[in-house]
């Protein structure tokens, strides 16, 4: 099992009000499986990815990734674990504004000390159709271009686990189809365990399995 959540609960405090978002959620994902998560806006999909990424911890329950209970690690250990094993495409991209597109994509490889960081980054930028935007800063690119840079950055390290939050949300149908085909080809080739949050049933149907986040739990 590559990924396992048991009895995961997460709520947010909004003033004196407690918002219960995840209410005892269970999930098991096999190694190499590509899982789509659907659900209404506000249902907690991004919250779930945040816990899977170890960017936050559940109120109770366990998040286990590749045999490690990351929900029980301290923050520094979670960060190190994430850097080694997990690629993330954030809903809001989170590109570094002072780095050019190519540098953003190369960064995770640079951090890992890969001498071929730039050439590998260039190759994957080409695959998402952005070889001509390598020297642009995020502020000089469209939303869809930034999204493709974020996808390229998440894929470039060939992570064991890939978390993608509406990766085609800002792309027109044609570009979305091309980019998601590249995305699927890469995760299939690398046997990457992938959790894909999407509103697109078409994209969800390309996955091995799809689940709906409803009332704080995952349902078929
Ligand atoms: N830090 C926070 N503090 C308080 N409430 C939060 C916080 N983060 C999220 N929420 C609330 O939790 C709920 C779930 O948010 P989340 O971002 O997980 O939804 P989502 O399913 O990803 O929605 P969308 O499809 O719009 O991206 C929302 O109602 C949101 O207002
Ligand atoms: Mg979201």
Layout of SSEs?
Layout: E1 3-14, E2 17-29, E3 34-38, H1 45-52, E4 60-65, E5 68-69, H2 75-85, E6 86-89, H3 101-111, H4 117-127, H5 143-155, E7 161-165, H6 173-190, E8 193-197, H7 201-204, E9 209-214, E10 217-219
Parallel strand pairs: 3-8, 3-9, 6-7, 7-8
Antiparallel strand pairs: 1-2, 1-4, 4-5, 9-10
This protein binds adenosine-5'-triphosphate and magnesium ion.
Magnesium ion is lined by residues 45-46, 91, 165.
Task: Walk me through the structure.
- Strand 9 and strand 10 form a beta hairpin.
- The chain is of the alpha/beta class and 220 residues long.
- The chain has a six-stranded mixed sheet with strand order 6-7-8-3-9-10. It has a four-stranded antiparallel sheet with strand order 2-1-4-5.
- The two termini are 19 Å apart.
- It has helices at residues 45-52, 75-85, 101-111, 117-127, 143-155, 173-190, 201-204; strands at residues 3-14, 17-29, 34-38, 60-65, 68-69, 86-89, 161-165, 193-197, 209-214, 217-219.
- The model has no long low-confidence stretch (mean pLDDT 95).
- The chain is built from seven helices and ten strands.
- The protein has a single domain, classed as Rossmann fold (3-Layer(aba) Sandwich).
- Helix 3 (101-111) packs across helix 4 (117-127) and helix 3 packs parallel to helix 5 (143-155).
- Bound molecules: adenosine-5'-triphosphate (ATP) and magnesium ion.
- Residues 45-46, 91, 165 line the site of magnesium ion (MG).
């Amino acid at each position: 099992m590559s990924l396992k959540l048991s009895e995961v609960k997460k709520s947010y405090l909004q003033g004196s009000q407690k918002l219960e978002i995840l209410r005892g959620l269970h999930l098991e994902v096999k190694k190499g499986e590509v899982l789509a998560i659907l659900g209404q806006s506000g249902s907690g999909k991004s919250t779930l990815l945040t816990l899977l990424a170890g960017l936050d911890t559940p109120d109770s329950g366990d998040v286990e990734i590749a045999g490690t209970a990351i929900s029980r690690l301290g923050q520094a250990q979670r960060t190190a674990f994430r850097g080694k094993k997990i690629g993330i495409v954030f809903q809001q991209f989170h590109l570094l504004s002072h780095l050019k597109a190519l540098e953003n994509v190369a960064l995770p490889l640079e951090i890992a000390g890969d001498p071929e960081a730039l050439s590998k980054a260039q190759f994957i930028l080409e695959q998402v159709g952005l070889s001509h935007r390598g020297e642009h800063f995020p502020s000089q690119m469209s939303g869809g271009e930034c999204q493709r840079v974020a996808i390229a950055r998440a894929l470039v390290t060939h992570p064991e686990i890939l978390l993608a939050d509406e990766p085609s949300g800002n792309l027109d149908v044609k570009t979305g189809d091309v980019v998601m085909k590249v995305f699927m080809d890469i995760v299939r080739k690398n046997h990457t365990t992938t959790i894909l949050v999407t509103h697109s049933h078409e994209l969800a149907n390309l996955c091995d399995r799809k689940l709906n986040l409803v009332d704080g739990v995952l349902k078929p």
